[in-house]
Amino acid sequence: MNASRTNTSRRGVSRPSTTGRNRTARRVAVVGGVAASAVVLFAGPALAHVGVQPVGEAAKGGYATVNFKVPNERDDASTVKLEVNFPAEHPLASVSPQAVPGWKIVVTKSKLDKPIEMHGKQITEAVSKVTWTATGDASVAPGYFQQFPLSIGQLPEDADQLVFKTLQTYDDKDVVRWIDAPTGGAEPESPAPVLALTAATADGHGAAAGAKDDDANKGGAAHHASDEGESGGTGSAASSGGSDGTARGLGIAGIVIGAAGVAFGVLAGRRRTSSTSTPATPATPAA
Question: How confident is the model over 186-224, as pLDDT tens digits?
Fold first, then answer.
């Protein structure tokens, strides 16, 4: 009887322990699966498609330098060609690519149905496409990305964004068409790069310093020198001021956190000293 009770008691103790461990293991597995799914869900789309970002701002009516960022979304092929098509509804007459080592660049221009005016001149053709083709081993390998810089202008004054339909070609001849324009809802399956345009600068047209210098050389040097002093450096000053403000904010935050850490360490040390110290033994009166 005693042996039977002892065995029953042992089984009663061991079963809940095993069950608890199994439940814990299942919970850990579920949490890990959910976390992994979240990482794939949120990180994947953000890194996969071709995008375009300005260096600084892209102000309406002005000029901007932009970077087309091309990540490699494949793990078994390399990107060897990029073709960026310019919006026909907002023609850009001035497009200058920056050299990218190992890549051949071709700028294609097309006749405009309706001429546009730029700096007092009638422009009858504009850039319709820029193509980068890798030479040698300069392709974008799996796990890497490449940036393709352009200087573009004059940006339209009657638009909030420019959509650049883009084709990405891999060395296995696969072509990914990033051509879907945004619709205001969820991101399309193959989104085209979109350049957001900001409001014109204080001078009313957002022209870059290079454009102002060209105008100044044509006879308006004194007038445009005044414009540059008042508004030409606004974007740069704002950017510099914002960077300095951020740096100062981070520096102050670091000092506050450091001071708090020192104070905490001092208080902790005093507490440990108080808790471990032994009161002095009173002296024995002399006989």
Answer: 888 899 999 999 998 765 444 443 444 444 334 333 333
How buried is 49 (Cβ within 10 angstroms: 0-12 exposed, 13-18 middle, 19+ buried)? buried
Helix (H, G, I), strand (E, B) or coil at 127: strand
Number of Cβ within a 10 Å radius of residue 35: 10
**Tokens matching residue 176:** 């990914």
Whole-number Å distance between alpha carbons of 51 and 166: 9
Residue in the block written with tokens 């450096």: 233
Rounded Cα distance, 83 and 86, in Å = 10
CA angle in degrees (0–180, nearest 5) for 259-260-265? 100
If 0-12 CB within 10 Å is exposed, 13-18 middle and 19+ buried, where does residue 138 land? middle
Query: Buried (b) or exposed (e) across 208-233, using 16+ Cβ within 10 A?
Result: beebbeebbeeeeeeebeebbeebbe
> In Å, how far are 53, 196, 244, 266 from 238, measured between CA atoms?
18, 19, 10, 42
The tens digit of pLDDT for each residue in 80-136 reads 999 999 999 999 999 999 999 999 999 999 999 888 887 788 889 999 999 999 998
| Of 200 and 152, the one with more pLDDT | 152
- Segment 159-171, tens digit of pLDDT: 999 999 999 999 9
